[in-house]
Design brief:
Elements (H helix, E strand, L loop, with lengths): L2 H22 L7 H52 L4 E5 L3 E5 L5 E21 L10 E20 L3 E9 L12 E10 L4 E9 L4 H4 L12 H5 L5 E10 L3 E8 L21 E14 L17 E13 L1 H4 L6 E11 L3 E11 L3 H4 L6 E11 L4 E11 L10 E11 L5 E10 L11 H4 L10 E10 L1
Antiparallel strand pairs: 1-2, 2-3, 3-4, 3-18, 4-5, 5-6, 6-7, 7-8, 8-9, 9-10, 10-11, 11-12, 12-13, 13-14, 14-15, 15-16, 16-17, 17-18
Helix pairs in contact: 1-2
């Protein structure tokens, strides 16, 4: 019934009532006040019905407006989707990811910040200040941004991949990367489910501790023993990778390095600056239990799977005498390692043997360089881990004692948010001489050049990784 009909009926009823009362005369005995009350009641009822009808009309109007708004939003979404081809996905998955719906095109962005406060002490005065001519002092301390990294990786047309890493660091000595460096930049293509070909600036992939990225180390920094070996560095080359459930292997042909070291700025640059006549390297790793992903980091958190990994790496290189001017012999190295994860604690060990008679700036030294390390960690709680490491290295540098480097390190990690936010502290003590000409590897490890024994280093580090 419409509002007009309802009001008409009420008005007619009111008029009839009033007229009937008037004609009734004294027989009805109705007063003027009574008639006024009845008229007021009728008007109130009419007002109520009018309000209800208006409310219904406004509700329908709002519904129409909302339906129109939803249609506009859907139309806008359809327009955006059409601009994205088959559609895009974005979010966080081991990095910030932008990907097509079918996964054939993907960009992952990662970042790393490692900020340290370091205190070191030597028995003799040291002056590591660039351009400093003072006598130096025994104790040094200060803050540093050890690494500020941006990493871009992803997939192109399903079967092709890329990995580019920019690293801003204060260190450029020895085998460590230069400041503001393009640390690596390589492309790869899938040849099959098991084979992959990789070309560009990349790691040697010989020693496991160096293969694991800095953000996934158990200790604050890799060992000096690992950094000493030239394959703990970057070169330009082409690498063939093989992987199945239990076995991984690679072989690489690369620029190598100079006659004295496996890594040199020239080996990472123009093809014409290649200082090696030839250089090959590779590695074979066997995993009887566990997953490959768990060995992407050096630790074994509580609740994770137990696993075993055994690996062997090798490298051999011959310098180009006509370019370097050095009559060099072939250099080689062999490295073995084993990793045991137990879901809450782990053990890692490595031993390496090398033959580099050109060490110490071309001075021939009898014998072979060799060294080893053992590292272990244990989780006291889900977020608190303690660790220890022992490393021993005989660099076979002319004029240096046989047992040159013996370093003991103890430390702890507080995982605020896993590897994404980690606060660490450790203390290392060298029972012999630390770093001298030809040893290298200072930089990131924070050891100073000291010809005296008993240097110690205290490091704290806050790591943020995304």
């Amino acid at each position: 019934m419409s509002l007009t009909t309802k009001v008409g009926f009420l008005a007619g009823a009111a008029a009839t009532t009033i007229a009937g009362s008037a004609f009734a005369g004294t027989s009805a005995n109705v007063s003027y006040e009574d008639l006024q009350q009845r008229l007021d009641a009728a008007e109130a009822k009419i007002a109520e019905l009018s309000t209800t009808q208006n409310a219904d009309w406004l509700t329908e109007q709002r519904a129409d407006e909302i339906r129109g708004l939803v249609q506009d939003v859907l139309a806008d979404a359809d327009t955006r989707a059409s601009l994205q081809g088959s559609g895009m996905q974005a979010g966080y998955n081991n990095g910030f990811v932008i990907s097509s719906n079918d996964g054939q095109w993907m960009l992952r962005i990662n970042g790393l910040l490692q900020n340290r406060f370091v205190v070191s002490h030597t028995r003799d005065d040291q002056n590591p200040l660039a351009g400093g001519f003072g006598p130096g002092e025994k104790t040094h301390d200060g803050f540093e941004t050890t690494r500020a990294v941006l990493n871009f990786s992803g997939t192109v047309a399903k079967d092709y991949h890329f990995n580019v890493r920019l690293n801003w660091s204060p260190y450029s000595d020895g085998n460590t990367p230069s400041p503001s460096e393009l640390e690596w930049a390589y492309a790869s293509m899938d040849l099959s489910d098991e084979f992959n070909l990789q070309i560009g600036k990349q790691k040697y992939d010989v020693m496991r501790e160096y293969m694991v990225n800095a953000e996934f180390q158990q200790t604050i920094e890799r060992s000096l023993y690992t950094y000493y070996w030239g394959t703990s560095s970057i070169t330009n080359g082409i690498k063939l990778n093989y992987s199945n459930d239990m076995l991984r292997a690679n072989v690489m042909y690369s620029n190598g390095g100079t006659a004295q070291t496996w890594n040199n700025a020239s080996s990472n640059g123009a093809y014409s600056q290649n200082p090696a006549d030839w250089a090959f390297s590779g590695r074979v790793a066997w995993k009887p239990s566990g997953t490959w992903e768990q060995f992407d980091e050096m630790t074994s958190p509580q609740g994770t799977e137990a696993g075993i990994l055994v690996g062997m790496g090798w490298a051999v290189m011959d310098g180009d005498d006509k370019l370097t001017g050095n009559d060099t012999s072939t250099q080689w190295m062999l490295s073995w390692d084993a990793s045991l994860d137990f879901g809450g604690w782990n053990v890692f060990g490595s031993i390496t043997l090398g033959d580099d008679k050109q060490n110490a700036f071309g001075q021939n030294v009898d014998g072979n360089q060799w060294g080893w390390e053992v590292q272990a960690g244990y989780y006291l709680t889900e977020d608190l881990e303690i660790y220890g490491r022992w490393e021993w290295l005989d660099p076979r540098v002319s004029g240096i004692s046989h047992d040159d480097i013996e370093i003991m390190t103890f430390g702890a990690n507080w995982y605020l948010a896993g590897q994404n936010a980690k606060l660490s502290i450790d203390w290392g003590y060298n029972f012999d001489k630390t770093i001298t000409a030809g040893v290298g590897g200072g930089g990131y490890t924070n050891w100073l050049n000291s010809s005296m024994r008993n240097e110690w280093v205290l490091r704290t580090q806050l790591q943020l990784y995304f």
